[in-house]
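Q: Please design a sequence for this.
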């Protein structure tokens, strides 16, 4: 986590975060549930992350894992603990939780790899979020040294562009904007030059007209001798 700009050491040293690691094959599902319950009683967390729930499939059947997780979700909701469950999915079941508990989850975020232009890029979207408004857009996200960064939605040719395809399209559009700006500036300069020429001609015509008007004025008659 520190490698992506999230330093958890102060929170761990301050007793705000506890990590509990256990191999799924170490014990049965009931023992895992009892261990989680014991840590909850001891630590009294407000937030819990279970990562990943699909590893329980190595201990019991899908039905047994679903029953165990349903009980765990009930415990968390009763205690008003915000819980995040991660689930590894295959390409064939990309919109399936694998253990059949998606219906009891309030919010479901889907992370996927999109292969485009010889690249695999990460995207995220909200598959469902019960009882609240949410975006239906697919967003690319980047894992950087400063944490997770969501990239603005970029549509090209009716599809979401990611990675170098997005960068290439952005650069092409930036070039087009610069070209239009340069062309607009050139037209503005041309118009300014034409205006200057026209104004110079108008000034010359006014000067000529003024001179002619001056020549047309009657001259004063010489005085009559006495």
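A: Design:
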């Amino acid at each position: 986590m520190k490698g992506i700009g999230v330093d958890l050491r102060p929170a761990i040293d301050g007793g705000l975060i506890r990590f509990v690691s256990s191999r799924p094959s170490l014990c049965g599902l009931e023992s895992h549930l009892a261990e989680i319950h014991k840590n909850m009683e001891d630590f009294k967390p407000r937030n819990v992350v279970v990562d990943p729930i699909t590893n329980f499939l190595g201990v019991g059947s899908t039905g047994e894992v679903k029953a165990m997780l349903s009980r765990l979700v009930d415990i968390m909701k009763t205690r008003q603990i915000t819980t995040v469950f991660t689930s590894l999915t295959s390409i064939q079941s990309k919109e399936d939780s694998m253990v059949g508990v998606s219906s009891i989850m309030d919010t479901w975020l889907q992370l996927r790899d999109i292969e485009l232009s010889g690249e695999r890029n990460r995207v995220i979207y909200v598959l469902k979020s019960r009882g609240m408004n949410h975006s239906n857009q697919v967003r690319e996200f980047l894992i950087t040294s400063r944490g997770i960064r969501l990239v603005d939605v970029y549509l090209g040719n009716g599809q979401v562009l990611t990675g170098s395809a997005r960068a290439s399209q952005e650069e092409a559009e930036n070039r087009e904007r610069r070209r239009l700006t340069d062309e607009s500036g050139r037209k503005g300069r041309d118009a300014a030059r034409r205006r200057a020429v026209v104004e110079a001609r108008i000034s010359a015509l006014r000067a000529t007209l003024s001179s002619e008007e001056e020549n047309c004025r009657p001259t004063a008659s010489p005085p009559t001798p006495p």
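Q: Thanks. Anything notable?
A: The first strand starts at residue 47 and ends at 50. The chain has two domains: 1-105, 107-210.
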